[in-house]
Design goal:
The chain has about 350 residues and is an alpha+beta fold. The chain has three domains: about 90 residues; about 130 residues, Ubiquitin Conjugating Enzyme; about 80 residues, no CATH class. The chain has eight helices and 19 strands. Strands 1-2-5-6 form a four-stranded antiparallel beta sheet, covered by helices on one side. α1 packs across α3, α3 runs parallel beside α5 and α4 packs antiparallel against α5. The longest helix has about 55 residues. The protein is flat, with a radius of gyration of 38 Å.
């Protein structure tokens, strides 16, 4: 047997041993849940005795309170029974032999041209071809299977999906694929099939299933949609826009969409709506740099209105300075007419 073959046999044996450990963990889980159920049955027996005493002595008020305990106890049972049933069903999955796992590794090597094994022998991986989804180039990915994680109850941490030539989404650099965030795959409907393949030691099937998810785009559940992949989020509303259609606010130094950006009517610089103020004279939107105080009344006005003396306080002064017509004395009009 060649060195490469011996290495694969050792990997296959390690996978089998981790799956056996997982099986034992599941047995212990079932034992613990059964113990909880036994405890609940003892609780039912205690409640039954209380109800028997209440009925025999005619304690109807106390009996009603005991019945409330019955309802609570019954409400806890479905959760316990469901957990035990699901785990017991999972324990039925047979642990494959070393030879069976070895054949799976050989098949994976044939399907993907190469099977990468870490120096420590605790990780096996395959590489996909470059992936393109609806015109979006994402590059190749490496699917890494961590052997020690196969011994855990949950298999969510058993594998990573690593972008070899990352083409991340502009708005979130840890998203390297619409369904991969921080090297974790959101498999959607394929999750159950992937976990079943891992639990059964069907390594090649596992790699093929993950590759199938990577080469398929589900528009209903992406971390970042293909349409928004190269876009930039508006700092105000979060809407993703094309980089060529964003507006840079000279005040807060953030990017905004066309709906959340405007411009100063004095200097014409681009300013977001949140950074614009209003001149109390002309009521135009003005940036903070072009807004000043009227030296006479302390109103916030733009520099243009200050230079052109358009502050409302000057109109108020002119109104106060106009001469007021004196009112005629009472009865004067009557005397005039009489004359």
């Amino acid at each position: 047997m060649h060195a490469e073959e011996r290495k694969l046999v050792r990997i296959a044996d390690r996978i089998r041993r981790h799956l056996l450990l997982r099986q034992r963990t599941r047995y212990r889980y079932v034992q613990g849940k059964l113990g909880s159920i036994v405890g609940e049955l003892q609780r039912f027996e205690a409640i039954r005795r209380k109800l028997d005493i209440c009925e025999s002595r005619g304690w109807h008020g106390a009996a009603l309170k005991v019945l409330q305990q019955v309802e609570r106890a019954c409400g806890d049972m479905p959760h316990l029974l469901q957990g035990v049933t699901q785990t017991a069903q999972g324990c039925k999955t047979a642990v494959p032999s070393t030879a069976e796992v070895y054949r799976e590794l050989l098949q994976a090597e044939e399907e993907f041209d190469e099977l990468v094994v870490s120096k420590a022998g605790d990780m096996v991986a395959v590489e996909t071809d470059s992936i393109e989804l609806e015109g979006l180039y994402l590059g190749p990915f490496q699917i890494q299977l961590h052997l020690s994680a196969l011994a855990e109850m949950r298999l969510d941490n058993a594998y990573d999906v690593v972008a070899l030539h990352p083409q991340p989404a502009t708005r979130n650099p840890v998203v390297t694929h619409p369904h991969v965030s921080d090297e974790r795959l959101c498999a959607g409907d394929a999750t159950a099939a992937i976990n079943a393949a891992l639990a059964g030691g069907r390594v090649c099937d596992f790699f093929l299933l993950v590759r199938s998810v990577l080469t398929t785009y589900n528009p209903d559940s992406p971390y970042v949609s293909i349409e928004e992949w190269h876009g930039r989020p508006c700092y105000e509303c979060g809407y993703t826009v094309n980089p060529d259609e964003t507006y840079w606010c000279v005040v807060c130094k953030e990017e905004y969409c066309g709906e959340c950006a405007s411009y100063c009517r004095v200097c014409d610089e681009t300013v977001c709506l949140g950074c614009l103020d209003k001149c109390e004279a002309c009521e135009d939107p003005v940036c903070p740099s072009c807004l000043t105080k009227c030296p006479e009344c302390d109103r916030s006005i733009c520099k243009t209105c200050l230079d052109e003396v358009l502050c409302p306080c000057h109109e108020e002064e002119e109104t106060e300075d106009e001469p007021q017509e004196q009112a005629a004395p009472a009865g004067a009009a009557g005397r005039t007419e009489a004359a």
